[in-house]
Amino acid sequence: MFNKVIIAEDHQSVKISVEHTLKELDISGTQYAYYCDDALLRLKKAIQENDAFELLITDLSFAEDGREQKISDGAALIEAAKKLQPDLKLIVFSAESSPAVVSKLFQELDIHAYVYKGRRDTIELKEAIEALQNGKKYLSPEFRMALRTKNAHDFSAYDLMIVTQLAEGTRQKDIPAYLQQNGAKASSLSSVEKRLNQIKEALGFTKNEQLIAYCKDNKII
Known about the structure:
The chain is of the alpha/beta class. The chain has two domains: 5-150, 3-Layer(aba) Sandwich (Rossmann fold), CATH 3.40.50.2300; 157-217. The protein has helices spanning 12-24, 36-48, 74-84, 99-108, 121-133, 141-150, 157-167, 175-181, 189-203, 208-217; strands spanning 5-8, 30-33, 55-58, 89-94, 113-116, 138-139. A six-stranded parallel sheet has the order 2-1-3-4-5-6, sandwiched between helices. Helix 1 crosses helix 5 and helix 7 (157-167) crosses helix 10. The relative contact order is 0.10.
């Protein structure tokens, strides 16, 4: 059972809802921060006092209100928190609806749970916390299906280099030179063409333009 939890959320109504959910799970040791900078400071202070937090629940988006912040979004907070405390459990509680963005949170930031702010969010938040307590990860049900259907291809760093260059207007035949300059092992034109064909086939596209539009729409690039 988690005994000490910090919530980073800039909407008071959501904060109250999360706190209520935690109380229902008999988790009383909670602290709250409106700003990411404040959340990180509390994490640091808790470690210094040998009373570290066990779980961070954070939104992704934080509204600007004129106060200068070093960390202005949840993803940056998670990255900083992981460097500070690698064993910290991480739940993202957000209205972000892009499956590609959610997938990146798991792949690149290694979060433990994603709960979508929707009709069942308090129920799902409970489920997420219980999953973490049992050593499992959690993803809101609607995203499980979405990621299976919309994220049929897991983009590697190599894939992103190729697609990004296409999106920036680089001709396909000129991409090998860019790959060579950036240390890619497979940098021949045939390798680029083969990889693009594999990606398009996995996603059901026939044209590079469709692939670029898909990657932009889903915030992959």
